[in-house]
Design brief:
Layout: H1 4-13, H2 15-25, H3 29-46, H4 56-73, H5 100-113, H6 117-127, H7 132-139, H8 143-166
Helix pairs in contact: 2-3, 2-4, 3-4, 4-7, 6-8, 7-8
């Protein structure tokens, strides 16, 4: 029997992971809502197999990123929805950025959204303060490959920002 209360608490504590992934993989609010539901559904299906000796956030990232990549790659005709709580995850409507920092953040999210799936996953995990070891575990690549890819991703993002400022 799956502990619904524990599951809901863990999702609530780690909902930032889902927000980051959905925002990176989906430009529209409707798609973000659909992806969030799909991620939560898959987390729920897999929750009985979660082993408490592992960090929940690492386990959650692995499942959420796999779901996001699959969601991104194919259009699904029929998406399953499951509701645990009406307010478990609420995406805010896009509003105009007011500060330079907000504009830069939007621009960063736009550039991240344009990356290849694996690169997008790596930078999201890095921005989520995951260690190279944790990123390697979640993505299934070596730590040295994580370091190499991160350097390339950072350079690409930096170039995109510089190009954008010059236009």
């Amino acid at each position: 029997m799956v502990d619904k209360i524990l599951f809901t608490e863990l999702i609530t504590e780690n909902k930032g992971i889902i927000f980051k992934i959905c925002n990176a993989y989906c430009p529209s609010k409707e798609d973000r809502d659909d992806l969030a539901q799909e991620i939560i559904y898959n987390l729920w299906k897999s929750f009985a197999g979660y082993k408490a000796e592992y960090k929940f956030s690492t386990w959650m990232y692995r499942i959420a990123l796999n779901v996001a990549i699959s969601f991104y790659r194919k259009e699904q005709n029929k998406r399953r929805r499951i509701t645990y709580s009406e307010n478990l995850l609420v995406f805010e409507e896009d509003s105009s950025p007011n500060t330079e920092e907000e504009k830069d953040l939007r621009l960063l999210l736009k550039f991240i959204g344009e990356l290849k799936e694996i690169d997008k996953s790596i930078i999201l995990l890095y921005l989520g303060n995951k260690s190279y070891k944790e990123i390697a575990e979640i993505t299934g690549i070596t730590e040295s490959n994580v370091a190499t890819k991160l350097n390339r991703i950072k350079e690409k993002l930096k170039t995109n920002f510089l190009t954008n400022q010059n236009n």
